[in-house]
Design goal:
Blueprint lengths: L2 E5 L5 H6 L3 H9 L9 H12 L9 E5 L5
Parallel strand pairs: 1-2
Length: 70
Amino acid sequence: RVNCILPRCGRTERTIRDFLTPELEAQVLGGQRLPALVDDTHVAAMALFLGAEDSARCTNQTYAGDGGWM
């Protein structure tokens, strides 16, 4: 199986330090259907799912972790 996890704008040490302003956070949250910044726990949960037998029929996909960005 081959899949890709594509986290979008998230809360990481680097984004907090270099990019994430209150204005950008408001813009991101305003454009999401599930408004919350992605963090490492979300990416880890997806990786665990994709590595588990529950995802045995999931392949050739890119899973965007973006809260339903519109």
